[in-house]
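> @MW can you paste both from yesterday?
MW: sure, first one:
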Amino acid sequence: MRDFASDHSMLALNTATLGHNLDGHGVGWSSEQVIEACAERGLGGITFWRREIGTRAVEIGNRVRAAGLQVVGLCRTPFLTGPLAPPTRQGVIDDFRASIAMAHDLGAPVLTIVTGGVIAGSHSITESLKQVQDIVAAMAPEAADAGVVLALEPLNPVYGGNRSCLVTVRDAVDMCEAIGAPNVQIAVDVYHVWWDTSLASELKRAGKHRIAGYHLCDWMADTTDVLLDRGMMGDGVADLESIRAAVEGAGYDGYCEVEIFSAGNWWKRPPGEVLDVMIERFKSVC
């Protein structure tokens, strides 16, 4: 495993950690303030959410690089299936295409896919996964032309109904293999995989060239909200060292991206404090 005790240059901020993914949360720092704070603290990169970027993708991407940071990724495509997805397939495709274009303009090498839940009325994860696979396969060439990796992110099974019919790394790797496009890979998020005893073997099956990202946070034992009560690393029950060992044992050597949804705690704190604690915990417990 890499030694991060005295070097956090491979640490990246996902701006959701400051509450920037949902209206009405966080203190509302501008992208410029986020970039400046991350650069001052020696972070390596930033992942943004589409709602922050608007029409400023080129400008923000250039500003990140001018500050000595990297744009690590962009969150995210639309939901592709289920109750939260656009109502028509064409609507899904159009929004997917817009997300690829934004990633390209921002200079984000990775675009995260959160698949969406079970198709309404189908009662079938299997059929829902087939629909996801069909859409991702159709969009992969466009993403490749734009220089963008599509990262399938399996979510914790608690989200199977509405947010993600893709709930295991096994199914994510299976989908990558079925599609067979080099730019269709997976993202591994502690919050969603900490419970999976097959994680290490599935990541080895995926291999280095199918792992596009690694996301850090923690699972609170007595969580009050499965969506908005993620823990800062070290505050929960996830075996963070073993999970990173599995990810890096499969060959991943990219950024470690902190992504914490915490409406009742971390989103209420000053962003500078959040960043400082994030760095300390990364060095000490991850």
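MW: second:
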Amino acid sequence: MDLDVFVSAHRAEWDRLEALLRRQRRLNGDEVDELVALYQRTATHLSLIQSSAPDPQLTGRLSQLVARARSAVTGTRRASWRDVTRFLTHGFPAAVYRSRRWWVPTALLSTLVAALLGWWIGTHPEVQAGIAAPDALREMTRPGGQYETYYSSHPAASFAAQVWTNNAQAAAMCLVLGIFLGLPVLWILLLNMLNLGVGIGLMSSAGRLDVFLGLVLPHGLLELTAVFVAAGTGLRLGWTVIDPGPRTRRSALAEEGRAALGMAVGLALILFISGAIEGFVTPSGLPTWARISIGVLAELAFLAYVFVLGGRAVRAGDIGDVEEHERSAAVPTAA
């Protein structure tokens, strides 16, 4: 494509579209039809330029022009309960399901790392001595010690809110920082697994691993799964920067970024449930088997939600993104 010739041939159309947009509230019927036709034509011009002869300055101008025209043509719409229902039954589970090849291995490897750290700490007294003094370790692991009283040290409601806030922030950081090639996500995962491994190691060395697991599993299964989903999605976003596949890097990041943003909202709801379990079930007087059963049921319900509803939505064509008519025009790529 000869860019100069292309610009000369179509500049008048772009200028006309800009003029119509400046007075869009005073257009008559014929001018509205003209605006729609020019919007469609300019969107096609933008796609051709981006795919054949990308020019940053011209692309920026036309992108802004197309965005303004699209807003004028489609108008604004308010979110409705239909949007919320669609997000919960299609968009969010579809996004989690599509990311399963990232977060499932992330979950398995992270759990293995936590188990190995726990074994290493639990079987090496010198490592335990580097964590804290012997008296402090006994205070943490004894019956009624810090590990046991941690979950009942604050009123249930405020504790659940604090836990939910902290976990939602961690999940959001994994999703947002994934764009930096996923490196910050790996660090966040390591810190979480190190914290879990220390608890496993210290309580197992005191012969009280069953107590520790009885306190962690009720809420930890769902909570860690949500963190793993966020981490896997963040890593996927980071890999998109490196390898966008057949899409342009811009469109790939836009698509994955929108899905990640929606996932942040969905995971906040999941973490709210795990926080409620941690605040009200974990420190309750229920038998250990009953508390763990509640945690297992919550985890199984989430997995069924993702793999049944999410799998069905993906097979129906949902990719966890906004609806097609709300996306920017796709840029064609060379075959």
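> thanks! Residues 209-242 form the longest helix (34 residues).
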